[in-house]
Design brief:
Structural class: alpha+beta
Number of strands: 4
Radius of gyration: 15 Å
Shape: globular
Largest sheet: 4 strands, antiparallel
Length: 146
């Protein structure tokens, strides 16, 4: 419904990732660790940095089937520049109407422990999504875990 509503408003969204197996998460995390090791970080440092960008196996919200990564046909790279697209702005403004929250907001990185992900949305239901988004909270704050 959210993708259809965005399209009606002239914004084309594209599902990049939804449910992800633990095996796929392990593959993505290992690749991210190797990327950081190539910059000169130790194994432990690379693992800590990688975990800010890719959830370690067994910890990804994608395992639950409640998280989605949405991009556009013209901006398929999941990077911070995505936040400047009309699609990201539309999703942030309208996601709660469909039960989703922007899961990792830019101003909550110290709380979530995850880098800003303007493409990552988590389903929590309409009531909770509206409460979270209207108050400018992240999920940890809303659940009282911070």
């Amino acid at each position: 419904d959210m993708i259809a509503a965005a399209k009606a408003d002239g914004v084309e969204l594209m599902l990049s990732s939804a449910y992800r197996t633990k095996e796929k998460s392990a593959e993505l995390y290992a690749a991210q660790v190797e990327k950081w090791k190539k910059t000169g970080l130790s194994q432990a440092e690379a693992e800590a940095e990688a975990a800010k960008w890719v959830a370690p196996p067994g910890t990804s919200e994608h395992h639950t089937g409640l998280a989605v990564d949405l991009v556009t046909p013209t901006h398929q790279v999941m990077d911070h520049a995505f936040a400047d697209t009309e699609a990201a702005k539309w999703m942030k403004a309208h996601c709660a109407e469909y039960g989703f929250i922007l899961r990792y907001p830019e101003d909550k990185q110290d709380i979530t422990g995850i880098t800003f992900e303007p493409w990552h949305f988590r389903y929590v239901g309409v009531k909770d999504a509206k409460a979270i988004m209207s108050a400018g909270l992240c999920l940890e704050e809303y659940l009282g875990k911070y």
